[in-house]
Amino acid sequence: MTASRRITDTLIVFAVMLATWQILHQIAGATALPAPLPTMKYLVHMLPTARFAENALATLEAFTLALALAYAIGLAIGVWMGAHRLSGAVGEPILVVVYSLPKITLYPVVLLIFGLGISGKVVFGAMHGILPVALLTMGAIRAIPPVYLRSAQSLQLSPLQTVMTVLLPAALPEVFTGLRIGFTVTLLGVLLGEMFASKLGLGSMIMADMSLAQSEDMVTVAIVLFAFASIANAVLLWIEGKLYRKT
Amino acid sequence: MTRVGLIRIAVIAAAVGALELACRLGFIRHQVIIPPSEMAEALYGLLAAGTINADIVRTLGVIGIVIVVSIVLGFAVGLVIHALPRVRQALDPFFATYYAVPIFIFYPVLIAIFGLSPMPIVLIGVATAVVAMIIATLNGLDRVPRVLTKVARVHRLGAFATAVRLQLPAAAPYLFTGVKLSVSYGFIAVIAAEFILSPAGLGRDISDAYTDFNNRRMYALILFLLLIATVVNSVLHVLDVRFAARRTGGRA
């Protein structure tokens, strides 16, 4: 399979997606779903506006904080449950069950505790990200050959040194997979939070557009988020591939 | 019960007990979280009065439709894509990014197109759940031994008969991963959609109770949904462990 053929195939997939969009537009009408071309024109106009910048920055800020929180807590839980067998055996099924719960049901609780401002969104986003990071980190650390740990012991490394110089480097590729999935679900969490209750942010912008029947605006924001998530994921996948090849 | 299982139950009981105590002693205000015992009591009241039965039926019905459509459609689409290697290669990067994109942001677009009805909810649910089933189907079909497809050809089975009588059972242990994910994703998407905007349903109920500051009702409904999700996921997990044994135990 040559590279050019692969590019052709990807372009065809894109063309089919655009065609589907156009057909949906013909069926649904311009007020419900604008056509691809006008949306692209609108996108160029919308991106530099202050309203978009303000909302995008609000989402970016909440997302960054949520991600930092999710990574810190997720890695801590993962390292602990991976290194300490009993905690892992006790905790893993609990984490798995919590992971597959519809966390949106807990959002009102988060809002009651943290309020409607940015902290509610951040906590809710982090709640999504913590679990995959913790579960994959735990799995990665468990899969480390015991001989690594024994050599760390014989070198009399402190627990912190063991984590930093032995456990994390050995587990890095798989831990990175957890970080990538954590990125995705944290973004989803922050956006869901914004869609449900928030004054600022791209999620609330989409909801406001919908109630005002501004479908061009709504579809454009969705496309921007779509593009952001796919590009970020492609970059993370590329780094991940490099990490796996190195080990 | 194993020692680990006992410790797990003790940990969960301690967590619930601590929450109960913190609420009763006033460390957590009643306006924020009500004690777990009160949640259970309120839920019992709701179920006994039957006031939420219509919403339970509606929400679980929508989830059921989403799951069945996703599994059947996902298997069918997976079969077709599996038979066309070039299409599959073209779609592979698409599948790899699919769950990295918050598809849920298209829910408002679906509402704009279809109006405020169960339709956008079913569609966003299927959109969330079906791809997991397609991916699992492709994965499973890859592992169906070549000799079986040859047997089908020898017996002159048609495409449909081959799919139902041969490929489906042979790939079953792998397909189950897709079923499990479809159920879990379908559940999450439907509840989230109801929560954000929907004419009725349990998600909408919770959201209303939250806006009305009706904490007893809200926590009762949250408890109910979390219990259902936990039971469903646990059953799927147990089944999956059994299938996993067949995956590794059976012939390659």
Describe this structure in a few short sentences.
The complex is a heterodimer of chains A (247) and B (252). With 247 residues, chain A is mainly alpha-helical.
Question: How would you describe the overall organization of this protein?
Answer:
The complex is a heterodimer of chains A (247) and B (252). Chain A is an all-alpha fold. Chain A has 2 domains: 1-33; 35-246, Orthogonal Bundle (MetI-like fold), CATH 1.10.3720.10. Chain A is built from 10 helices and no strands. Chain A has helices spanning 3-28, 36-46, 50-83, 85-99, 107-114, 118-142, 146-154, 159-196, 202-211, 215-246. In chain A, α3 (50-83) packs antiparallel against α4, α6 (118-142) crosses α8 (159-196) and α8 runs antiparallel to α10. Chain A is globular. The model of chain A has no long low-confidence stretch (mean pLDDT 88). Chain B folds into 2 domains: 1-33; 38-249, MetI-like (MetI-like fold), CATH 1.10.3720. Chain B contains 10 helices and no strands. Chain B is globular. The model of chain B has no long low-confidence stretch (mean pLDDT 88). The interface between A and B is large, with 59 and 52 residues.
Helices and strands in order:
The complex is a heterodimer of chains A (247) and B (252).
Chain A: H1 3-28, H2 36-46, H3 50-83, H4 85-99, H5 107-114, H6 118-142, H7 146-154, H8 159-196, H9 202-211, H10 215-246
Helix pairs in contact in A: 2-10, 3-4, 3-6, 3-8, 4-6, 5-6, 6-8, 8-9, 8-10, 9-10
Chain B: H1 3-24, H2 36-49, H3 53-83, H4 85-98, H5 107-114, H6 118-142, H7 146-154, H8 159-196, H9 202-211, H10 215-249
Helix pairs in contact in B: 2-10, 3-6, 3-8, 5-6, 6-8, 8-9, 8-10, 9-10
- Low-pLDDT residue intervals, each spanning 5 or more residues of chain A: none
**Which outline of chain A best applies?**
globular
Order of helices and strands of chain A: HHHHHHHHHH
The main sheet of chain A comes to: none
In helices, the fraction of residues of chain A equals: over 70%
The SS-based structural class of chain A is: mainly alpha
Describe the sheet with the most strands of chain B: none
Number of strands of chain B: 0
CATH superfamily of the largest domain in chain A: MetI-like
- Low confidence ranges of chain B: none
Shape of chain B: globular
